[in-house]
Amino acid sequence: MPVTDDAAITEILKRVRSVAVVGASPNPARPSYGVTRVLVAHGYDVFPVNPGHGGGEIAGLKAYATLADLPQPVDMIDVFRAPDHVSALLDEVLAMNPRPSVFWTQLDVVDLEAAARAEAEGLTVVMDRCPAIEISRETGVPH
Question: What is the pLDDT at residue 23?
Answer without folding.
Answer: 97
